[in-house]
Design goal:
single chain, about 270 residues, mainly alpha, MetI-like fold
Length: about 270
């Protein structure tokens, strides 16, 4: 009796997971052998096993810090989606406002966040709110840029059809432009999901200096001072896993919750 064939999509997924696992194992083996061969001290570069032991020993602290950083990253990302989408809608409806204000959105992207963070701490304090503000600033540009491109990229044939049936500007916006730009919004949000974790950790480098706020960035700062390199590496891995988790969550929302909108966009464009 023949075994049932594995669906092509499942086969592709299993192959991808297997290849990723193989590369991870190879990287860990090279890391372990490098430390052993050059006899590197633990303070300079610990082995993967030492990092794992440190992660287990600090598991509660790491877990709580990851929750704090994750909450700040998610909050900042959601704020940037709301503000970025609103700005994109305004830019799509007024060329004058787009020409006047879009350069300032670009300016937020080009100014180093480490230069803005101290100012925000002066204005907002050593609080969770400051971390969210920094994260939202970091995430804003990809969302505004992608959403604006989607709103302005609607096919002329579709717009002419709406005009033919007497649809006004706001009806075209709500029924045509916004649905067709959702896929662009999700693309910008995916890009910003990784930036959100970076922005939150950078903000925590500053906020953690003045309070007992315990995010991953604060832990990294403290463990660097104490030369706890093994625990520091485990915090880096925790931040990477948090970024992957956020990207996966955005991908899941795009695939499930907004499936109707993205299908509409594909049909229109």
């Amino acid at each position: 009796m023949k075994m049932p064939a594995i669906p092509s999509r499942l086969r592709e997924t299993l192959t991808s997971v297997g290849l990723v696992f193989m590369v991870a194992c190879l990287a860990l083996a090279v890391w372990e052998l490098t430390v052993w061969h050059f006899e590197l001290p633990k303070a300079l570069l610990p082995t993967p096993r030492q990092c794992w032991v440190a992660a287990v020993a600090e598991r509660q602290t790491l877990f709580l810090a990851t929750l704090s950083t994750g909450a700040a990253a998610i909050s900042g990302l959601l704020v940037s989606v709301v503000i970025g989408s609103s700005l994109a809608i305004v830019f799509s409806q007024s060329r004058s406002l787009r020409l006047a204000l879009f350069p300032y959105v670009i300016l937020l992207q080009t100014v180093p966040i480490v230069a803005i963070a101290p100012l925000l701490i002066i204005w907002s304090g050593y609080t969770f709110r400051t971390v969210v503000i920094v994260t939202a600033i970091v995430c804003l540009f990809p969302i505004v840029n992608s959403m604006t491109g989607g709103l302005l990229g609607t096919k002329q044939d579709s717009a002419d059809l709406f005009r033919l049936y007497g649809a006004g500007r706001w009806k075209r916006l709500w029924r045509l432009q916004i649905p067709s730009s959702i896929s662009y919004l999700m693309l910008g949000t995916k890009t910003s999901s990784g930036l959100a974790v970076i922005g939150a950790i950078v903000a925590e480098f500053f906020v953690g200096n003045g309070t007992t706020y315990n995010g991953l960035g604060s832990l990294m700062t403290g463990w660097t001072v104490m030369v706890k390199t093994d625990a520091l590496v485990s915090a880096v891995f925790a931040s990477a896993m948090l970024g992957l988790l956020m990207f996966g969550a955005v991908q899941l929302v795009s695939a499930l919750v907004l499936r109707r909108w993205t299908r509409f966009a594909s049909a229109v464009n």
